[in-house]
């Protein structure tokens, strides 16, 4: 019989505690609305920097292209790339990958190396790629020129 009374007592204590918490948290007060004066929100100040920075696409309806075609781009690279002597002596061959953004006007910005090979070869790849500035037809999305990220792999082989 004592076990039964003890069980009822242990069962009722948590219920009583929960009831006390609920009563203590209850309030009869109505929430009061706080009046905040309306303020005019001004648009952020915008400055023209020469290039309108907007979304950079990775894939568009018409991808950017070297203005005279892919064949002319290969000729340009062949004509302007000079194999660094240090890398040539070390027998370094392989691929460098350069990434950049072709802007709406055909210029290139944000030139960076994605895959490195050798410090001198990397420098040469960036130098020659920067010479291709203003030689691109921009990418087109919905019949409008847009900014597009472009990747250019360059293979360096000793002949």
Task: Give a structural overview.
With 159 residues, the protein is an alpha+beta fold. The chain has a domain at 56-156: Fusion Protein Consisting Of Minor Coat Protein, Glycine Rich Linker, Tola, And A His Tag, Chain: A, Domain 2. The protein contains four helices and seven strands. Strands 1, 3, 4, 6 and 7 form a five-stranded mixed β-sheet that branches. It starts with a helix and ends with a strand. It comes from Pontibacter diazotrophicus. Residues 68-159 form the TonB C-terminal domain. Keywords: Cell inner membrane, Cell membrane, Membrane, Protein transport, Signal, Transmembrane, Transmembrane helix, Transport. It is found in: Cell inner membrane. It is a single-pass membrane protein.
What is the averaged pLDDT score? 82
* Distance N to C terminus: 102 Å
CATH architecture descriptor name of the domain at 56-156: 2-Layer Sandwich
- CATH class categorisation of the domain at 56-156: Alpha Beta
Q: What name does the CATH topology of the domain at 56-156 carry? A: Fusion Protein Consisting Of Minor Coat Protein, Glycine Rich Linker, Tola, And A His Tag, Chain: A, Domain 2
Give me the number of helical elements: 4
- Uncertain residue segments: 39-48
């Amino acid at each position: 019989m004592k076990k039964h009374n003890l069980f009822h007592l242990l069962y009722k204590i948590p219920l009583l505690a929960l009831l006390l918490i609920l009563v203590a948290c209850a309030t009869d007060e109505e929430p009061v609305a706080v009046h905040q004066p309306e303020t005019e929100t001004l648009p952020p100040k915008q400055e023209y920097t020469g290039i309108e920075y907007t979304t950079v696409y990775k894939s568009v309806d018409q991808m950017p292209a070297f203005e005279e075609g892919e064949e002319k781009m290969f000729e340009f690279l062949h004509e302007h790339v000079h194999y660094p002597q240090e890398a040539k002596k070390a027998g370094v061959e392989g691929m460098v990958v350069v990434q950049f953004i072709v802007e709406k006007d055909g210029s290139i910005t944000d030139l960076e190396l994605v895959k490195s090979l050798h410090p001198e070869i990397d420098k040469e790849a960036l130098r020659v790629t920067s010479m291709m500035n203003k030689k691109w037809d921009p990418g087109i999305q919905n019949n409008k020129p847009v900014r597009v990220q472009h990747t250019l792999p360059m293979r360096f082989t000793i002949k």
